[in-house]
Amino acid sequence: MRDLEKYKGVIPAFYACYDENGEISPERVKDLAKYYIDKGVKGLYVNGSSGECIYQSVEERKLVLESVCEVAKGKLTIIAHVACNNTRDSMVLAEHAESIGVDAIAAIPPIYFKLPDYSIENYWNDISYAAPNTDFIIYNIPQLAGVALTESIFSVMRKNPNVIGIKNSSMPVQDIQMFKQAAGEDYIIFNGPDEQFISGMIIGAEGAIGGTYGVMPELFMKMLESLRVGDIKTARDIQNSVDLIIYKMASAHGNLYAVMKEILKENEDLDLGGVRKPLTGLIDADKVIVKEASKMIRAAKDKYLNINLLNPYKSL
To answer: What is the pTM of this model?
Structure first.
């Protein structure tokens, strides 16, 4: 029987943590993991897009995952994204992730070359077979990968007993509905786009993985709590506030991850370093945006975290 309960909740995508020389900092990785434990999130999604995985070596990604698990294993659900742009390295990371006891591995499709469906299916299955005792999550993010998960590919992948669901980061909320209807209750669909968190959860997602959760996990957890008791108005109000924060952060010249790391430094006294090139670091003009976004997050927390949620459906 699948244990899907451990995936049903708010799972921040873990940020890359560098030292002053731009190298992986195990100490800062552990500090960030402890921060999320204290916040009470459901789990962590490690070495994904927010972890700048495509700009890191296999050995660096192993170090990050080992450092996270040293602190969070047994306390949070750990999903390790293991995809590289070749099958061999992906399998090495999958085997490593299983060896240290993660709950699940995940993978985007191979990028750059446009491959036929059967090549994508073989790629994912080869990765899964390298970790035969570990759950496997398909990562659908067509706007970045250039490949969209189809119902046909998903149907084939469900023949692999390790496949438990999809991290769906495509923009149409309808995709979540279609994948959930096709798969049923034995599979879990994770909402990906943070800007439509409540829409995805209402239409069928039961878990959620997102990159902006990391700077304001409490707000996403409050949205989920609001949905679970039927207080749609509060959930919608928080979503609107969160989206304004995301738009503010995305308005910077520097990369979004650089902005969010600086916000964590501002609001939580966490120093995670910068971002790895070719991602762009912050410029002086971005400091105002960081200050404004940090203030918006604090104000939203003050406004929403302590409110009493309404009785089910009275806010409809």
So the answer is: 0.96
